[in-house]
Amino acid sequence: MLGQDAGADFDKAGGRHVLMLFFGTAAHPACATALGVLRHSPGLFSDGRVAVLGVTIDPRDAANAQVQALQGSGMHVFVDADQQVSRRYGAIEASATGLTLKPYWLLLDPSLRVTGLFPLQAGEDAIAALQRQLAAPAADAAAPALVLPHVIDASYAAELIALHARHGGAESGVMRQIGDRTVEVQNHAVKRRRDLLIEDRTLQSYLRDAILHRLVPMIERSFQTRPTEIERYLVSCYDARDQAHFAPHRDNTTPATAHRRFAVTINLNDDYDGGDLRFPEFGSRTYRAPRCGAIVFSCSLLHEVTRVTSGRRYATLPFLYGGAS
Q: Which co-factors does it depend on (predicted)?
């Protein structure tokens, strides 16, 4: 089954070198030839550093043998049913006489910046450029994340851990756009975490004051914007027994989450292994806030939580929004 969610596919490609083929329709001989170039480059699909994406506007391609074979090899193909993506990327052009295909290859780096654009017939050149990109020394840049110690007191951290231990929390899902609704869905391949809402007003008030006085001034100094609102008060637990983790994602990709500006991770303990933050678009480096400290970063950044391999990682994870730059 060909995917329909181009945005989700593209977002998940961050952190890898991306080769995109806007082929429009496999029924066109030249486009079929370009797909054949990929079929003769099987090494692309076995390299975890590479994502190969294909875009078609032809629903019949779901039954095309060559497209199906490429999908079986690992290529991600989606149908641009409303043609919005293809129009935006200049792969089709509308005129009074109908649509004109303008298929081509697009090469991006792990931060999803364009590094090459190649005509349809230059597929071998596009693959050669990708291979040169892969051979270059890997950049391991620092992610634009703010790491701060001493955001909350140790006694407050212990109280939140005890609260979660008493009530256990519940499995939390991921937000997906289904039709015109943003809904929470469970997908253990993407996320394993148990969350507990903080309903005690005193505990909420302490956290709000700590964020306001110990975090927000540094956010304003570092990012020249001052968030004014907090979304959600909760305690989260990543448990090694659950192989808890959170696969690469962004925090503001649906209409119901688009208001989020900053994600905040405040670690409540440090007696665990794994469970670190990674920003794939900026390399393989991992980040961990000290106990009672915080990491703050833009909700637009692709990030993941690595699998907890021993112990339990407890954290409180608010989002900040509002304010003006």
A: L-ascorbate
